[in-house]
Amino acid sequence: MTREKAPRAPTIREVAKLANVSTGTVSRVVNDASDVKPAVRKAVEEAIAELGYVPNAAAKSMRMGRTRTVGCILREINIAQLGGFVSTAQNVLNESGYALLISNSEGRREREIKLLRSFSSGQVDGVLMGPYTPIEGEMEEILRDLPVPLVMIDRDQPPWCDAVYVDHEGGTRLATSHLLGLGHRRIALLTGPMGLHPAVSRVRGFEGAHAERGIAPLPDLIVSGSFLRDHAYRATSALLSLSRRPTAIIAGGIDMLSGVLRAIRTHGLAIPGDISVIASGRSDLSDLHQPPIAVVGWEQSEVGATAASLLLDHIIRGRRDEPRRVLIPTTFDPQASCAPPRGPGSAEGP
Amino acid sequence: MTREKAPRAPTIREVAKLANVSTGTVSRVVNDASDVKPAVRKAVEEAIAELGYVPNAAAKSMRMGRTRTVGCILREINIAQLGGFVSTAQNVLNESGYALLISNSEGRREREIKLLRSFSSGQVDGVLMGPYTPIEGEMEEILRDLPVPLVMIDRDQPPWCDAVYVDHEGGTRLATSHLLGLGHRRIALLTGPMGLHPAVSRVRGFEGAHAERGIAPLPDLIVSGSFLRDHAYRATSALLSLSRRPTAIIAGGIDMLSGVLRAIRTHGLAIPGDISVIASGRSDLSDLHQPPIAVVGWEQSEVGATAASLLLDHIIRGRRDEPRRVLIPTTFDPQASCAPPRGPGSAEGP
C-alpha cells in the first residue's frame, strides 16, 4: 500500500508542465471530458502516472461544485428485474461522465431518510429513487428540500417532480381479463402499500377488468400492504387456507412471485391444475418454472434509460420548466400457468 | 426545490450557538457519532432544522479526511445471491456510521479500473471488491497503490491484502463425489476464468474428487473462461451437442444456473432423467425449480459480515499488521436434480 508517500504530493501545475499543456487541460482529462484529443489525453495520463498525481475528489468537488456522481436508492439490490434498470441507467450516465452509486434501503423508512439526508449534504449531483415510504410528512419535506435534482422511479408523486412510472394498470387489466375469460371468478391480487403508485395502479386495473365484464371483484381477495416476498408467502398461505380459496393469484410486485410459489408448494397445490398464477415482470424464475409463469411485463431498461436522461437534463443543462412525466407501457404474456378453474365440485383440490 | 436559498448559508457556529453546545458537538451529531446524548442530539438537530444548516460533505471530507463511505464494486447487482452479502455488509458498516455505496462493473476491465481510480481520488474510505479482471499488470498496480484499505471478496490474491474467500474446492469435491457415487463418469464442470479463485478452487475440488476414486476427469468437459449466464448457456449447448454428451453438469458460478437450465430446455432434455444438475449457491431458482436443484452452498451473509468487519478494523482502528485471510466453508445439499445416469444404450436420450 502507499501509506508511505513522497513527502509532498504532486500538484496539477506540475502535471501540466510535464505534459506541456494547461492546467485546464489536465482538469478536463481528470474529469473525463470528451473534448480532449487522444494524443493530449495520453500525454497527460503519462504525466499523471509518472508523478503519481492523485486528483482529490473532495477538493475537486468543492472547486467544481460537482461530484460527477448520481445516487440511486433501491429497496433491495438483488431483485432480479432491477438489473436491466441499473445497467441501462449506468450506461447512460457514464456516457456523460457520471457514475451511479447505489444504496440499499431495505424498504426501511429511517434508512431512506438517512440516505436522502446524506445525499443532501453534497455527496451526489442528482438522485434516482422510488421511495417505499409514502410521499407525505417528513419524506415529502426532505424530497422538497433536496438541493439536487431528483427523478422518481415508478412513483407518480410528488407532482412537481420528474417521474418515470409504469402502466401497471394496463397490464393488470389485461391479466385479469385473461383470467376472467378463462372462467375464474375468485381471483386474488397481492400487492404493496396503497400509498404507492405500483399498488394503486394494479388495483385500478384489477377492478377495471372486473367492471368491464360487469363482475364484482371480491374485496377480501385484494391483499395490499407490502411488496416483500415474505409478505407474498404469508398472504398466499392465508388465501390458500380459506374455505373457499382463490382459483387464481396475481403476484402484483416484481419480487413477489417466489413467495407465491413457495406457499403454493407448501399447500401441495399444482399450477395450473389447482391454481393459476401470474407474475409482475419477467425473470429467470418465471421463465424457467415448469410450467412457465404468465407475466405482466415492461422494459426495465427503458425505465433506466429514461430516468437517467431526465436527470442528466437537470444536472447538465439545468432544465427548470414543467416537470416531465413518462409512462412506460406494459404487456401481458399468457403462459401455461393459467388454465380454466376446476368445476365447483373439485375447487377444494384433490 | 431549494435552488433559491437564503443569501448566506448558516454556519456550524450559528448552529452551535442556537443549540447551546460546542461546534465539536454539532460536528459529532452531523457525523453520526455514537457518543452524543439523545437530548443533546435532539437540540442540535432542531437547531440544524431551524437554521436550515446543510453540512457540506465535500468540505467536511476535506476537514476530516473521511467520507464515512465504503465503496463496493460488484460485477452485477441483480445476482440473487449477492443480496445476503450486501445487506449484511451494509448493516455492519451502518452500525459504525458508514454507508455502503455499490457500483456495477459488469465484469468489464475498463470499468473496474475506472471505478478504482475514482475511489482512489478520495470518494470513499475503503473498498470491498472481487475483481473480475485477473489481479496482474495494471489491476495489480492500482490495487497496490489504492490510498484506502481494501478487502478482497472471494479472491485469494493479492497476498498482502485482507481477503474473505469461499471454500469452493470443498463443496465442489462433495458435489463431484456425489455424482461419481451415483455412477456418473461423464461429468461437466462450467466455471469462470482460471485466473480467479472461484474457478481455480472449483476445478481443484472437481479433480480431487475424481482422483480420490482413481477416475480420470475428462478435460474436454471442464469449461472455464466466464461466470456469465450467457456463457453458461452457450457452453451447455455445446456440451449437449457432443456425440457423447455429459450425463451431469455442475454450474460452477453463482449466476450460471439459469443459463444451464435454458440450454437443457432448448435441447428438450429432462432433469434428472437425461442429465443431472448441480448449482453453486442456493437461490429462488434452485429452490423452486421442479425438481429442486442440488446446491453447493455457503453463507453469503457471513462473507458480507466478515469482510465489513475486516475493513472497519483498517478504517477505524488503523490495523497495519499481517493481512488476515478468512475461508468461508461450503456444504453440499443433494436434491432430486441428481440421479444415476441412464445405461450406455440410452445415454443419447430418448
UniProtKB/TrEMBL annotation, chains A, B:
Checking InterPro entries in the record gives:
HTH_LacI, LacI/GalR-like_sensor, Lambda_DNA-bd_dom_sf, Peripla_BP_I
Q: What UniProt keywords are attached to this protein's entry?
A: DNA-binding, Transcription, Transcription regulation
Annotated region Disordered: the residues are 330-350
Q: Which domain of life is it from?
A: Bacteria
Transmembrane feature ranges:
none
Question: Residue ranges of the HTH lacI-type domain?
Answer: 10-64
One Pfam family of this chain: LacI
Q: Return the CDD domains for the record.
A: HTH_LacI (cd01392)
Q: Respond yes or no to whether keyword Membrane is given for this record.
A: no
For whether the record's keyword set contains Transcription, the answer is yes
**Entry GO MF terms:** DNA-binding transcription factor activity; transcription cis-regulatory region binding
Q: Which PANTHER family match?
A: LACI-RELATED TRANSCRIPTIONAL REPRESSOR, TRANSCRIPTIONAL REGULATORY PROTEIN
Protein name (Swiss-Prot/TrEMBL): Ribose operon repressor
The species this protein belongs to is: Methylobacterium frigidaeris
Lineage, highest ranks first: Bacteria, Pseudomonadati, Pseudomonadota, Alphaproteobacteria, Hyphomicrobiales
What gene makes this protein? Answer: rbsR_2
